[in-house]
């Protein structure tokens, strides 16, 4: 377990917090502030406990230059509104300069300041020690609360921890608690549902989860590469041709590991990748040459539902059909509903799966929706994330 802000005496201390304020912007206006609101519990805790709070984040890809298109000014304004409190924002092109240092020095307990986009500095993404030191010198404690960049060793996510005591904020704590516990000490049966477009994207996740789960369900576009590996014809369905051999190997590994591997037994197919195209249901061994599978069929939904109902822990990564088109969303909706009704610990890891669950209005029925994207995938691959590894362990 990693230490969190609760394990530190932050009163009167300058605390530099790496947040993920990489919000979507349109013409300089924030179109979705969920990343800012998600960070508020950590920020409020620090304010209430008398810390002097220094926030930092990246925004977009300014490629190491002070491109004001990527200024954090709109974020500073939104934080002010949400906290109902003045905050200090100095738009320094070099992120840390004399004015910033003085302002940090002058902070009083409960004050909040936001630094300019850390990616204005070339060193940031190279984890340059000089920049890490400049950031560290502003503060007494480093808090990482940006899970979405925790798989990157950058100055503001990991480097700064070389020079300051480092702990996690509440967002990273929650990710480690749910994703970490689910993978390392799950209540069993432990079922993973994998979907998405390509096997290639998820090979390492499947390999890692095969060592942990009792049942692995495979749906979505990646199922067709497995069908091909089993010798079935898949029509014009999406195929990851370079990974057929690997799919065969994974099938074998599942068998050796005693993991129940469930593939769809029927599919909802169409004549074209189009919501208006003619559709039909086929058993998986009867997909005609000019049809493509775009969702799982009703028999598969039942098969998957029965396996999920038994589970005490479920991880879901990747939609089981092209849910963006209403005619091919039924399978993904069915999986989401079963998870929503389940008493199991249910964890959603994956941008599109999370979006699907949101879209169906079932997000609050899940135990945890990971905000990570790439970071959640690497976590599920069993990799060490530099932004977490750098934090102090609990004794
Ligand atoms: P996540 O972001 O949850 O990890 P992925 O990015 O791996 O998920 O995959 C999501 C994409 O997979 C969706 O855009 C969806 O349309 C696509 N997909 C699912 N099933 C199929 C299919 N049968 N054929 C083509 N694409 C599919
Ligand atoms: Mg995705």
UniProtKB/TrEMBL annotation:
Question: Quick one: which residues bind (2R)-3-phosphoglycerate?
Answer: 35, 119, 152
The species is Clostridium aminobutyricum
Supply the EC number(s).
2.7.2.3
GO cellular component, as recorded: cytosol
Describe, as the record does, how this protein assembles with itself and its partners: Monomer.
Q: Principal localization?
A: cytoplasm
Q: Which UniProt keywords apply?
A: ATP-binding, Cytoplasm, Glycolysis, Kinase, Nucleotide-binding, Transferase
Gene Ontology terms for molecular function: ADP binding; ATP binding; phosphoglycerate kinase activity
Instruction: Tell me the Gene Ontology biological-process terms attached to this UniProt entry.
Output: gluconeogenesis; glycolytic process
User: What is the annotated signal peptide range for this record?
Assistant: none
Tell me the protein's name. Phosphoglycerate kinase
On the tree of life, the source organism's domain of life is Bacteria
Indicate whether Ligase appears among the record's keywords.
no
Stored PANTHER family: PHOSPHOGLYCERATE KINASE (PTHR11406), PHOSPHOGLYCERATE KINASE 1, CHLOROPLASTIC-RELATED (PTHR11406:SF23)
Q: Which family does it belong to?
A: Belongs to the phosphoglycerate kinase family.
As for subcellular location, the record says: Cytoplasm
């Amino acid at each position: 377990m990693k230490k969190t802000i609760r394990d530190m005496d932050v009163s009167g201390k300058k605390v530099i917090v790496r947040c993920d304020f990489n919000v979507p912007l349109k013409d300089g206006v924030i179109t979705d502030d969920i990343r800012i609101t998600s960070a508020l519990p950590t920020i409020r805790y620090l304010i209430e406990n008398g810390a002097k709070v220094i926030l930092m984040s990246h925004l977009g890809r300014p490629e190491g230059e002070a491109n004001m298109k990527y200024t954090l000014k709109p974020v500073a304004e939104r934080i002010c509104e949400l906290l109902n409190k003045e905050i200090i924002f100095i738009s320094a092109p070099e992120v840390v300069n004399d004015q910033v240092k003085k302002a940090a020095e002058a902070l009083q307990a409960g004050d909040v300041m936001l630094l300019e986009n850390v990616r204005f500095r070339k060193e940031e993404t190279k984890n340059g020690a000089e920049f890490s030191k400049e950031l560290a010198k502003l503060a007494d404690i480093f808090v990482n609360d940006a899970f979405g960049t925790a798989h990157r060793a950058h100055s503001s996510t990991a480097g700064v921890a070389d020079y300051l005591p480092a702990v996690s904020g509440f967002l990273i704590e929650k990710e480690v608690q749910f994703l970490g516990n689910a993978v390392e000490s799950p209540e069993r049966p432990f079922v993973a549902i994998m979907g998405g477009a390509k096997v290639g994207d998820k090979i390492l996740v499947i390999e890692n989860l095969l060592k942990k789960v009792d049942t692995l369900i495979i749906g979505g576009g990646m199922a067709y590469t497995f069908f091909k590996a089993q010798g079935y014809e898949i029509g014009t369905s999406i195929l990851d041709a370079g990974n057929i051999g690997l799919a065969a190997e994974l099938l074998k590994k599942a068998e050796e590991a005693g993991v129940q591997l469930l593939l769809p037994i029927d599919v909802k197919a169409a004549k074209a990748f189009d919501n208006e195209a003619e559709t039909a249901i086929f058993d998986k061994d009867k997909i005609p040459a000019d049809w493509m599978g775009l969702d799982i069929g009703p028999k598969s939904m039942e098969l998957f539902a029965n396996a999920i109902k038994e589970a005490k822990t479920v991880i879901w990564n990747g939609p089981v059909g092209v849910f963006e088109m209403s005619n091919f969303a039924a399978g993904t909706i069915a999986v989401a509903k079963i998870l929503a009704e389940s008493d199991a610990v249910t964890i959603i890891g994956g941008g599109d799966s999370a979006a699907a669950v949101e879209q169906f209005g079932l997000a609050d029925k899940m135990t945890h929706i990971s905000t990570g994207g790439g970071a959640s995938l690497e976590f599920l691959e069993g990799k060490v994330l530099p932004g977490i590894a750098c934090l102090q362990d609990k004794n």
